[in-house]
Write a structure and sequence with these properties.
about 160 residues; mainly beta; 2 domains; 7-stranded antiparallel β-sheet; 3-stranded antiparallel β-sheet
Length: about 160
């Protein structure tokens, strides 16, 4: 029997608009996403795929994902379709994932099905995969021009 050990390896924040990127993006706090554009306008550094930061206005709310990381495991998919992990999913973790967006789930079995579907069947998917365990919480922050900061949204 595999012992379930809860280990919070990190807590990170990312704007909701890019929170599903892989590898998982994240910074220590919402404040770490605040940047200034060349004209001095405050912006959220939510750049992905060659975009540019999102300018912020007074009181504008941005939803951040607070991601609690519970570590990684090795998932083995055998030729007969059976599964094994070297570390079970901690009870506090709500999700796990492999690098493919189609391989995200609320259980190791869902992730394995995603891997098998992505790779074209059990025979092609047989192997060992790094997966990660995590939970998401959504929190709204707003830009406060007096403080020059992102603060928890009121309301």
């Amino acid at each position: 029997m595999i012992e379930v050990t809860t280990l919070i390896s990190a807590i990170t924040y990312a704007p909701e608009s890019i929170s599903d990127e892989f590898p998982m993006v994240g910074r220590k706090s919402p404040a770490d996403w605040l940047v200034k554009l060349s004209d001095g306008t405050p912006a959220c550094d939510d750049v992905n795929a060659g975009g540019s930061p999102t300018p912020l206005t007074d009181g504008e709310a941005i939803t951040f994902v607070r991601k609690t990381h519970y570590g990684a495991a090795l998932l083995t998919i055998n030729l007969d379709g059976s599964l094994a992990v070297d570390r079970a999913m901690p009870p506090e973790a709500e999700r796990c994932r492999w690098k493919s967006e189609s391989s995200v789930g609320t259980s190791v079995e869902q992730v394995a099905r995603g891997i098998i579907n992505t790779l074209g069947g059990t025979r092609r998917a047989a192997g060992v995969y790094d997966i990660v365990y995590y939970s998401n919480e959504y929190e709204d922050f707003e830009y406060d021009p007096k403080a020059g900061a992102l603060v928890p949204a009121q309301g």
